[in-house]
Amino acid sequence: MDAISAGDLKTILHSKRANIYYLEHCRLLVNGGRVEYVTDQGKQSLYWNIPIANTTTVLLGTGTSITQAAVRELAKAGVMIGFCGGGGTPLFAGTEQVLDVTWIAGQSEYRPTEYLQHWTRFWFDDGLRLGAAKAFQQARLTRLRRHWSNVTRREDRRFLPDLAQLEEALITASSQVASAADATALLTIEARLTKTLYRLAAQATAYGEFTRSKRGDSTDAANQFLDHGNYLAYGLAATATWVLGIPHGLAVLHGKTRRGGLVFDVADLVKDAIILPQAFTSAVRGHSEQEFRQACTDTLTQSEALDFMIDTVKAVAESFGRQARVDAPADIRHAT
Prior knowledge:
By secondary structure, the chain is α/β, with parallel strands linked by helices. It contains twelve helices and nine strands.
């Protein structure tokens, strides 16, 4: 068998990478050419390897530090770095901000601009940008239907939603999305559906009464897991948009004035489908944060969530970029 060099390992597609790390009370450094995190146990220091070639996101929580050499290696491998508080929320400063989510992304002068060019062709057209937002919402509904239906077929059967009520809600939402007049209407439809999903998820797990709290304001297990899990989705979304070279500020739904709104748009493709049911299931089963996080990352990987995000963004960029070229005045078409 031919040996595989370290350089070859770094060519693994982001959409095929399996790992999302949340670390706390440790140091990240380069040791013997490998990125490792070090924990202290008494007078001993324990070193754990991070397979950067197979990693999309590293979240650095309470009590962490990182060396310049480790940042360099993570950037070379295209790993998104986020600094955050305890339990994964909130995330703090860096270069690409979503509310208080900030990501430090690797920089390269040779990254492709194909999808950025498609995106900017349509993004300044209000009608096309609304069409792109609707396409995202329809993809979200399709993913939601598929994943919730699949969850009910699992052996443990811990999550048993009323699929008839779910289908009715999805059909209604799809119709409303198609006829929405603006982004505000789309956000209202999204919020209304998510509230219905909370109710169905609480019923599906016999969780009891549930009210969604503001981020960080509740000790309720399901709310805490929702906050935590959403940041895992944000990490994947930040990775997907970075891979395609589209700045996080070019949102289609969550506001043109938000620097990281596109990360919200892309994360919504999988949040309600994957994170929401797992949050309620883990809350009922009494999972720890680590158990919940592992369940989420396993499902995100098995369902190829990052693949889905990247493919959806690419399809939207190409479709609406082409429409913008067709609709453009003749002199602009010739110039481009």
